[in-house]
């Protein structure tokens, strides 16, 4: 089932890529997927008001720390490449060894805060090659 979804994403990316009448010079157009959820622990002090000890020193008691586990969005996100930059297509030999052969439909991993928002295509980002951290298989 998951493999079928990836194939559909690839075909969809190809069809969208053909309809975009722009050629990007050095930026990949990427459509982010749903946020990745991770489980994190958060520490919380039950009482943050300083108290006086018997010597009269005011301090916060950190012996009683409560740990809470929550499911939150990851700092990283997956996305589907929609459009490849012109300089990447022209100089594929130059990029060999630096990156894999990236093409529309590939799923990549990038930092949530990286790239530029591209409002001409809903919910898409423009990423540089060094913003792409991994190619997901």
Description:
By secondary structure, this protein is an alpha+beta fold. Strand 8 and strand 9 (124-127) form a beta hairpin. It has three helices and ten strands, in the order H-E-E-E-E-E-E-H-H-E-E-E-E. It has helices spanning 2-19, 86-90, 92-95, and strands at 28-32, 37-44, 51-52, 58-59, 66-73, 76-83, 107-111, 116-118, 124-127, 132-136. The longest helix has 18 residues, at 2-19. The protein has a six-stranded antiparallel sheet with strand order 8-9-1-6-7-10, with helices on one face. The chain starts with a helix and ends with a strand.
The helix fraction, in percent, is 10-25%
Tell how many strands the DSSP assignment holds. Answer: 10
Q: Order of SSEs, N→C?
A: HEEEEEEHHEEEE
Strand order of the largest sheet: 8-9-1-6-7-10
Give the structural class.
alpha+beta
Radius of gyration, in angstroms, nearest whole number: 23 Å
Q: Main sheet?
A: 6 strands, antiparallel
Tally of contiguous helical segments: 3
What is the 3D form? elongated
Uncertain segments: none
Average pLDDT confidence is 81
Termini separation: 15 Å
């Amino acid at each position: 089932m998951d493999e079928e979804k990836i194939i559909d994403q690839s075909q969809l990316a190809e069809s969208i890529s053909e309809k975009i009448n722009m050629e990007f010079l050095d930026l990949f157009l990427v459509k982010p997927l749903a946020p990745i959820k991770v489980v994190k622990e958060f520490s919380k002090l039950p009482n943050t008001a300083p108290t006086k000890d018997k010597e009269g020193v005011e301090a916060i008691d950190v012996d009683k720390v409560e740990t809470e586990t929550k499911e939150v969005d990851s700092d990283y996100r997956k996305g589907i490449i929609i459009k490849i930059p012109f300089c990447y297509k022209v100089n594929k030999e130059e990029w060999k060894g630096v990156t894999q052969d990236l093409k529309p439909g590939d799923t990549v991993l990038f930092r949530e805060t990286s790239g530029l928002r591209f409002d001409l295509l809903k919910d898409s980002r423009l990423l540089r090659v060094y913003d792409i951290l991994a190619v997901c298989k």
